[in-house]
Predict the structure.
Amino acid sequence: MSGSLIGTGARARFGVVLALTLLAGCGSTISKTPGALEAYSAEEIYKKGEIEVETGDPADAAYYFGEIERLYPYSEWAQRALIMQAYSYHKDRDYPNSRAAAQRYLDFYPAESDAAYAQYLLALSYYDQIDDVGRDQGLTFQALQALRGVIEQYPDSEYASASILKFDLAFDHLAAKEMEVGRYYLKRKNYASAVNRFRVVVEQFQTTQQTPEALHRLVEAYLSLGLTDEAQTAGAILGVNFPSTVWYQDSYALLTGRGLSMDARGDSWLTAIYRQVVRGEWL
């Protein structure tokens, strides 16, 4: 089991060694046939679920944990089983059911110690489905919202720092999508549409690693449109914030090759950005 996925609160109760010791001989006899589990206690079924999630089939583990909730509702074991069911579904990559179980935990036990973990699992159910930038980004937006829930509601939990990292990566993912579309338009000489996409990155995704390239692409697009003031201003922003990047070097070569400088000129949206950069307000 990945230590980064299940935290100390849940792990403290995750007695795999004890379960294996107690159930080594009889664990395999606990059947999934209808009515079979009614002969076992909540603790015995829970330990069977632990064995399955660690060494067997996580889908079977989710089943056993779910049966505890059905057979022993409102018990402490049902509460423990619900968070483990969410984890088991996630391990099985059954993200909708993992999300549903995590949300039920949050609905029923919002003040319990594993609530932060439930919110983190809910966020992961979106985040772990984020694929390449060419796909629809709805899941990315949902991941960002759920990760923000961990960061804001459980700032002192062990999942906060991991959520911040994943939030930044997902945020960069959205910016990368804008860049992909912008490059598409730029390649097809649809410069106005390209500018609109790169502007979104510069204005809304300033903290991502996509920003230096977005500024360089603005230099390219504005030069193609004959808007030299805007092109030079984009280059000036690169010079202030990203002078050591290859994008600055490429923009410098483009502008100076046309006898232009990397200075802020005119009165455009980029000029306003440049003034913020100079004052140190845009980072």
User: Anything to note?
Assistant: Confidence is low (pLDDT under 50) at residues 12-27. The domain at 7-127 is CATH 1.25.40.10 (Serine Threonine Protein Phosphatase 5, Tetratricopeptide repeat).
